[in-house]
Every structure is written in C-alpha cells, then in structure tokens.
Amino acid sequence: MRNLTKEEIKILESQRCYADDWKNITVADDFDAKNIRNTSFRGHVQIGRGVTINDTKLIKGSGDSKPCVISVLNEGGDGNIVLLPNLTSQLAWMMIHYPVVFNMVYADAEKNTSSASCVIGDFAIIDGATKIEDCYINSSKEAPTVIGSDVIIKKTVTACDAEVTDAAKVYESFVGEAVHVGKGFSSEASVFFANAYMDNGEACAAVCGPFACSHHKSTLLIGGEFSFYNAGSNTNQSNHAYKMGPIHWGVLQRGAKTASGCHILWPATIGVFSMVMGKLTQHPDLSKLPFSYVFGDADKAYVYPGTNIKTVGTWRDINKWPTRDKRPEKGKKDMITFDFPNPYIMQFVADGRKVLEQIRKEQGDKEEYLYEGCYIKKSALEKGVRYYDMILHLAPSYNENMPECVDMLGFVARKDDVEKIVKKVENGELANTDSLLAEISLLEMTKTPIDTNSEAYKEWLSMIELDARKEFDMGDVTEEQLEDFIKNMKWTTSVHLLHK
Questions:
Q1: Cα 43 to Cα 160: distance, rounded to the nearest angstrom
Q2: Pick from 242, 235, 238: nearest CA to 258
Q3: How many whole angstroms separate alpha carbon 417 and alpha carbon 4?
Q4: Cβ distance 244 to 229 under 8 Å?
C-alpha cells in the first residue's frame, strides 16, 4: 500500500471527496481515483484496487486496531468470538466451545494489528452508504462485496461476496460469504455465515450458520444458534429468563424452523429438522427427538416425534440448499456438509428411538407421556418409534458404534477429531490462527448414504407424495404443480440427494 499522490488528491477533491488528512489514506499501487466520488474520509483508511465508492457520507478509521471481541449466545458474557478477516463458521464454533482456542486466536490477533482500522478490500462496491467505521471489508474481483444505500456499519468484518444494503445497521458483527443483510435489518454482536439471508428484523448475540434465513420485520434472533434455519414472521426468543440479565441462550439444531408467532424462552435446545410453534416456556432439551413438531401454549407443550420427516417442506429443504450456495467455486471458506442423512443426524435418530422406548417402559401404558417438561401423546410416541425406525433403515451403513459427531456450524465432523485439534492448540503445536484453519480444513466426515433400493426409501417417498397430495387437496397448489413436484422429486432423488 502507498500514500496518495498530489494528482490523485486533486482528482478526489474535484469529485467532491474530502478527508481530514489525506496522509492517513493509503491505497493499492494501481488505485484509480476516478472511481471515488462524493465521499468523506476521516482517520486511517486503506483502499484496495478496483474499489468503487459513490455518495458515501463517511468512511472512518479511528486508529484503534485492537481486536474486536463479541459475546454471542450469552449476551452478558465476557466475549467468545474474535472478529477476524479470515473468520470461518468452523473457527467461530471452536472459539465458542473451547476457551483455549479463543485465547490462542485472540493472542494471535493482537500480534497482527494494522495502522489502518478501516480497510476497504479489492473491488468492493460502496454506493450511498451513510457510515462505515472501523470495518474490514473483504472483497475480491471474483466475489465483490457490496455496501449499499443508507447503511451504517461499524466495527464489523465482511467476507468476500457479502451484501449489506437498504439502510441495514450492523454493529460489531461478521457478515460472511454470500450473506445478505438488508431492508433495515439491525445486527449487534452477531455472526452470519455462508448464504445466510437477513431482511427487516434484528439480531443480537446470535450465531447464524449457513442458510439461516429471516425475512420479517417483527422477527428477533437473540442469544441463539441457528443454521439451515427459517424464521417465521414474528419469531422471537427471550434470554432474560429469570431476571438475572441476558445470560440465557439456546440452540435450534440444523434444519429447525419456527412458525409465525413462535416465542421460545431460553434456555432450550430444539432437535434437527424440527418445527416449533406457539410459545415454548418449558426449557426443554429436545436434541434426542429430531424431526419433531413442537407445539407450545405457554402452560403446556406437546411434542410429536419424527413427524417432520414425512413433509414436503423437509424434502424441499434438504434438496434446495446445495443448489442455493451462491459462493464462487474457488475460495470458499466455510465448510458445509450437505449430505442427508449424515452421522450427526443419525446419532440423534438412534437416540430418539431409545428415548421413546425408555419413556414407554418407565411410564407405562398411558395416554400422555412426559419428557423434558413436554407431553407426548401415546399415538405420537408410537408413530415416532416407526418414523425413527424408517430413518434408521434409510441409511443402513450407519451403526451406533460410530464415533460421536458434532455440527461445527454447518460442517459435520467426528468429535474425537475435533478434540485432537484442540489438544494441539493446548500443547502449542497450533500457535496461530492460520495453522489452526489449515488443520480444520483437513477434517473429514464418514458418509451414511441413503439406500435407494430399500423398502424404507420407498416408504419415505410415499409419505412425501402423500403430503404433497394433501396440499393439492387443500387447494394450495395446482394439479400441474403437484405432478411436476412428484416427477422432480424422483429425479432429485437420483441426481442430487447424496450431493456427491
């Protein structure tokens, strides 16, 4: 990087640009001043090559290059993520779950500070922003980042191909690869990873993994972990459960959804591919009952285990995500496991089968059973056992002796492999963030593919088709749409389902 030439300063000033001190602005060697118009600069700002900036009220670098630390999940915590230019969903997950990793990453970040506290990366497009302060805007020619009209963004890092537009307000956050934040969305101390999409609502202390999605003005994501997630309108959570401050948090595991008007009182854990409806106040851990419908009405909650495996929505979700990855093929940072099913999901299905049998054995023959403060009707329990049996037969290569797996915010890995990496951090073998990221990139996952020749597979297809026909019977879709879905459902199965 270099200082501006006198000629470049003259061009900038002729294009209605202003700086409190042009000596504090550094630029790439092939910087083109003609691409910067009607913009004010204050403090230390670094501008990469190919950058376009128009009509931006203020780009400011305060000179404070100390690493920015935020506290996610536990809003009242001491901090558990360092906002870094090379942050990935897996690195964020490891910092959250392993303090030794956070400490190493923070110490490494302190050693690598820069004099420029506001960096505008190569080929970034900034058009009509209100204020950009102390930000690191990653961008590239193949994946330019866009900061649009009326945006206020402060102490935030973006990945390449991020988009922050339409009066969004983003403070102390990370906006990841191909992530969209717009339409007045407000974020504070939150992170958003590959292909997340946020409009209108707000987030605070939220961990939003790949494909987390919120579109509605009245939706709040607070103190929670969400991935492959869709928020219904007026979805919100409470993290002040017992008036001890905003210290409570929860997890909606991959593929979980919330219906319109859903309110969850943290702490709670919702299992993979489950749907929550109503007001849930029981603080349940339902991780061992995946694919459930959860109905809450404040005083009482009902769980219907396994029901969501047979819906059109689940079928569409598992097939749509690979096709909606908007990141360029080269340079992807976040690792994503699209495989369905995978060992992480299957271990909860196996647990669910055991849990339901144990509930029936311990509580006897009754019309309603109690689990984690929630009720399960007898018929729902019996159906849940059958659903989990079917899923287990869908992927016969899975067995319960396989090592435990974790979901590293989008990527499924063996827990023992992750803990080996943590051990290397503890003993000093991995002493900087780059070496840790390289080690994470080597993680692999055991495949548990669907047996498309099995009776369980045929049963699953028939369930999905039946659910689609129910939609048709209700008048929600045309006959042409129904037949097209059924036809493509079978085609999708053979071509996309395993995501090879």
A1: 24
A2: 235
A3: 49
A4: no
80-88 mean pLDDT: 97
Would you tell me how many other CB atoms lie within 10 Å of the CB of residue 163?
Answer: 21
Q: What is the 8-class DSSP label of residue 446?
A: -
Contacts (Cβ under 8 Å, ≥6 apart) of 338: 321, 322, 499
For residue 428, give both structure tokens.
């000093």
The number of beta carbons lying within 10 Å of the beta carbon of residue 10 is: 12
pLDDT number for residue 499: 39
Residues near 230 by beta carbon (within 8 Å), at least 6 away in sequence = 213, 214, 257, 258
Phi-psi region of 475 (alpha: psi -120 to 50; beta: other; left: phi over 0): left
- CA 101 vs. chain centroid, Å, equals 20
Amino acid at 87: L
The whole-angstrom separation of Cα 355 and Cα 349 is 10
Q: Locate 393 and state its tokens.
A: 């037969």
Q: How many Å apart are CA 427 and CA 425, to the nearest integer?
A: 6
Number of Cβ within 10 Å of residue 54's Cβ equals 16
pTM, two decimals, is 0.95
- Beta strands 202-204 and 293-297 are unpaired
494: pLDDT confidence band, cut at 50, 70 and 90? very low
